[in-house]
Design a protein that fits this description.
The complex is a heterodimer of chains A (about 110) and B (about 110). In chain A, about 0% of the residues lie in helices and about 50% in strands. Chain A has strands spanning about 5, 10-15, 20, 25, 30-40, 45-50, 55-60, 60-65, 75, 85-95, 100, 105-110. In chain A, a hairpin with a 2-residue loop joins strand 7 (about 55-60) and strand 8. The N and C termini of chain A lie far apart (about 40 Å). In chain B, strand 7 and strand 8 form a beta hairpin. The chains are: A mainly beta (about 110), B mainly beta (about 110).
């Protein structure tokens, strides 16, 4: 079945550092790919998405490119802020199913 | 104007009790979900309803029973609570298939003592 593997955390960075969180997937067909973010004490919210190969999703300075050849959707940000401290989830969804498949989440802590 | 709301936010109860968590969405979505998040932040889908019909029922103990009185509401009833049920439970909704964004509620932290 479909699955998502993301790098294990926790990840600790200093403010203004470059961030990469790796995400790879296994899926049949052409899934949509998502990054969700969960701030402390809150529910998940969509950060960005991409629906087909070579699409780039972007939001709040974060970017991720749908790479079908490497089955990857790595999350990047050029300069992180303390306010980016959160848990980040990579996920995939298929058109024929209501189910989202989530990775295990990566906790990011950004220190001032 | 909250899109997906859950009550209560915190629930502390003793083993063996029965409790319910309520969820409501005002987004007009047809599909609603219940997820369980453990202490390591791992997120596991439990149930999904589409237009009041159960469409996803993962391997969840029979003590958990979802109920959808209408497509804007999906409640979760838990019988005979156990220590292992302690977790954060999230309700979510979406337009339907997995290509659509899911909107999550703020979560209900359940603690069983």
């Amino acid at each position: 079945g479909d699955s998502v593997t993301q790098m294990e955390g926790p990840v600790t960075l200093s403010e203004e550092a470059f961030l990469t969180i790796n995400c790879t997937y296994t899926a049949t067909g052409y899934p949509s790919l998502f990054w969700y973010v969960q701030y402390p004490g809150e529910g998940l919210q969509l950060l960005l998405k991409a629906t087909k190969a070579d699409d780039k999703g972007s939001n709040k300075g974060f970017e991720a490119t749908y790479r079908k050849e490497t089955t990857s959707f790595h999350l990047e940000k050029g300069s992180v802020q303390v306010s980016d401290s959160a848990v980040y989830f990579c996920a995939l969804g298929q058109g024929g199913s209501e189910k989202l498949v989530f990775g295990k989440g990566t906790k990011l802590t950004v220190n001032p | 104007d909250t899109a997906v709301s859950q009550t209560p936010k915190y629930l502390v109860t003793q083993m063996g009790n029965d409790k319910s968590i309520k969820c409501e969405q005002n987004l007009g979505h047809d599909t609603m979900y219940w997820y369980k998040q453990d202490s390591k932040k791992f997120l596991k889908i439990m149930f999904s309803y589409n237009n009041k019909e159960l469409i996803i029922n993962e391997t969840v103990p029979n003590r958990f029973s979802p109920k959808s009185p209408d497509k804007a509401h999906l409640n979760l009833h838990i019988n005979s609570l156990e220590l292992g049920d302690s977790a954060v439970y999230f309700c979510a909704s979406s337009q339907g298939s997995g290509v659509y964004e899911q909107y999550f509620g703020p979560g209900t932290r359940l603690t069983v003592t």
